[in-house]
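Here comes an entry:

___
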Amino acid sequence: MMHKLLATLTALTLLTACQTTGARNVANMTPAQLQAAKAQDAKAAEAGYARCDQTSANIVESTKCKAAVRERYITPYAPPEEQRISRILVAQNIALAEKIQRGEITEAQAREQYAAVVRSVMDQERRQHQGRGGRS
């Protein structure tokens, strides 16, 4: 019981820290600084993902923990549009993990639903970009 509580608190702390303090500000870095920071953060993300696997008591905690790690160490290097898409997909992934945990769907069904969400989001992005191109 204590392990589960600790894992929950760890995941929530990670998620809260990422939401309140944000991640690295990469906007004002030189190319060399950016490359070094990206390599350092990739290693930190890998360790963070492993920690999520070790400390999370269930699929929802693990998914949320990994989302927090991604938000802190990976997302800052993506362009704003990709960051937005990533956050949409992460939210969908967490929702699917919650459905798996409640027994509403299987992991295979979740993978199928996630693939459909990815296709839908990408189709929507493509339409938005085509619309912007037509207006200029």
Notes: Residues 1-21 have pLDDT under 50 and may be disordered.
